[in-house]
Amino acid sequence: MDDISLKILKILQKKARVPNIEVARQVGMAPSGVLERVRKLEKQGIIDGYEVRLNPARFDRSLVAFVFVTPQPNSDESKLGEALAAIPDVQEVHYVAGEDGFMIKIRAADTVRLERIRREKIAALPQVRSTRTRIALQTYKETARIPLDDSSIQKLKKRRT
Questions:
Q1: Conformational region of residue 60, where left means phi above 0, alpha means psi within -120 to 50, and beta covers everything else
Q2: What string of DSSP letters covers 19-64?
Q3: Domain 56-136: which CATH class?
Q4: Is the pTM for the entire model greater than 0.85?
Q5: Domain limits of the chain?
Q6: How far is CA 140 from CA 106, 137, 146, 149, in A?
Q7: Predicted confidence (pLDDT) at residue 5 exceeds the cutoff of 70
Q8: Residue 8 contacts by C-beta under 8 Å, 6 or more apart in sequence?
């Protein structure tokens, strides 16, 4: 990984649909060279995919909630994690340290819909012992971007050697 690949990653994180020719212009390379680098980054698993971010308000999904899920004793965490991830309303599933086993992120239209999802889809799972819900009153930042700095690049280089 060199400085040019890092610049390409930064550009693509800001706007994944930027034309290849524009990326090439910004990094001072031929478009074919940029395309080759992007394909290599994809093959190496550094670029994991591309995703369109939709405006949640346009789809009546403005309410953000985090539900902490405590599994039943001796339940299989991976199976519960997969079951939670299979729920369409769930955006994120994290297995966390502490008294709760999982923290999941849900987007819903309102508290009525949120409670229905919690009760009918989450708490109804046999591996679930209990849930606690926290509703976000305001979101100041929400991103999947990873900060790319010199230390990130050094770690990538060390992993490859």
A1: left
A2: -HHHHHHHHTS-HHHHHHHHHHHHHTTSS----PPP-GGGGT--EE
A3: alpha beta
A4: no
A5: 1-53, 56-136
A6: 17, 10, 17, 23
A7: yes
A8: 23, 27, 34, 37, 38, 41
E strands along the chain, which residues? 63-71, 90-95, 102-108, 128-136
Q: Dihedral of CA 139/130/98/91: which sign?
A: negative
Neighbours of 92 (CB within 10 A): 12
pLDDT beyond 90 at 23: yes
CA distance 36 to 65: 41
Architecture of 1-53 per CATH? Answer: Orthogonal Bundle (1.10)
Q: What is the pLDDT of residues 137-160, one digit of tens each?
A: 999 999 888 888 766 666 666 666
Residue with token string 């990873």: 146
